[in-house]
Amino acid sequence: MRPQRRPPQPERATPIVGSWGVRVAWVSGLVLSISAFTDWYAGTLPNGLTLSVTGWHSGALGKLVFFVGLATLILEASREAGILLPAAVPDRLLLIALGALAVIFVLIRLISVPDTYFVSTARGIGLYVSLLAALGLLGAGLLRTAEDLP
After folding, report:
1. Residue 65 CB: number of other CB atoms within 10 A?
2. How far, in whole angstroms, is CA 82 from its chain's centroid?
3. Distance, CA of 40 to CA of 80 (rounded, Å)
4. In which domain, by residue range, is 70 found?
């Protein structure tokens, strides 16, 4: 009985280091992580003091936005180091999922302003930066998918 040879498995495509999908993923992950510490809400107290609330202090969603950005950075650093995910879970799919989660988390905070902080609150610039970074992360996953197409 002769042992049968397996057909050669296709080589997993790793993204090119200088590609747009890789660059956008790095930048979006970094900006998303940093933006959790920027002002998401600003308000005025009745006595005239102006205060702001960072994303980290806005509740669990602000912390989750930070950890999504951190997970993106860890995913990109491990891929650069040569540690690849299993073939059943491609990194581009994981980037799309992380980007979608970040967009949902930031949109919830954009729509639902917590009224426990101030009498009058307004949205800060950090919330919009977080939204752009989350959309960039989603776009990075889509760019990676487009780059892997034959």
Report:
1. 29
2. 21
3. 32
4. 31-148
pTM for the full predicted model: 0.82
Q: What is the spatial distance between Cα 1 and Cα 93, in angstroms, rounded to a whole number?
A: 42
Cα dist from 101 to 46, 117, 131, whole Å: 36, 25, 11
Report the domain count for the chain: 1
pLDDT digit string, tens, across residues 65-111: 999 999 999 999 999 998 888 888 888 899 999 999 999 999 999 99
What are 38-68's pLDDT values in tens digits? Answer: 999 888 777 888 888 899 998 899 999 999 9
Torsion 136-142-144-146 (CA) sign: negative
